[in-house]
Specification:
single chain; 103 residues; mainly alpha; Arc Repressor Mutant, subunit A; two-stranded antiparallel sheet; 5 helices; 2 strands; 63% helix
Length: 103
C-alpha cells in the first residue's frame, strides 16, 4: 500500500476513535474501564443516565474496538481493549517524528 493510502487509512482509524470520544459520557465510561473492568450497572452508578443508556454507549465503544466484554457468571464485565488505541499511538508517533524533523 503506498504511503499516502496507508496515511489515509490511519487517519480514518484515528477519526473513528475520536468520534467515539466525542461524547463526554463515553470518555467517562472509558476512563472508568481503564482503571478496572466493570459491569454496566456499576458504570451507571454515579452517572446521570440509566443502565440501558450506558449499555448503548458500551455497544458503540465495542463496535469501535475500544471496549470488550466477557461473561463472568450471569454478569458481563466490560474492559478497555487497549489495542483499539493503537491508531492514535501510531498517529501521534508520526506527529512527533514530523516535529523532530523540523528541529
Amino acid at each position: 500500500m503506498p504511503k499516502s493510502h496507508a496515511h489515509a487509512a490511519l487517519l480514518r482509524e484515528v477519526l473513528r476513535v475520536f468520534a467515539m470520544f466525542g461524547h463526554p459520557l463515553r470518555v467517562v465510561i472509558f476512563q472508568r474501564l481503564a482503571r478496572t473492568p466493570m459491569t454496566a450497572g456499576e458504570l451507571a452508578r454515579g452517572l446521570p443516565i440509566t443502565r440501558s443508556a450506558v449499555v448503548q454507549h458500551l455497544k458503540r465503544l465495542q463496535a469501535a474496538r475500544l471496549v470488550e466484554t466477557r461473561a463472568a457468571g450471569r454478569r458481563r464485565l466490560y474492559r478497555v481493549q487497549r489495542r483499539g488505541l493503537a491508531p492514535l499511538s501510531r498517529w501521534l508517533d508520526r506527529l512527533r517524528a514530523t516535529d523532530r524533523e523540523r528541529i
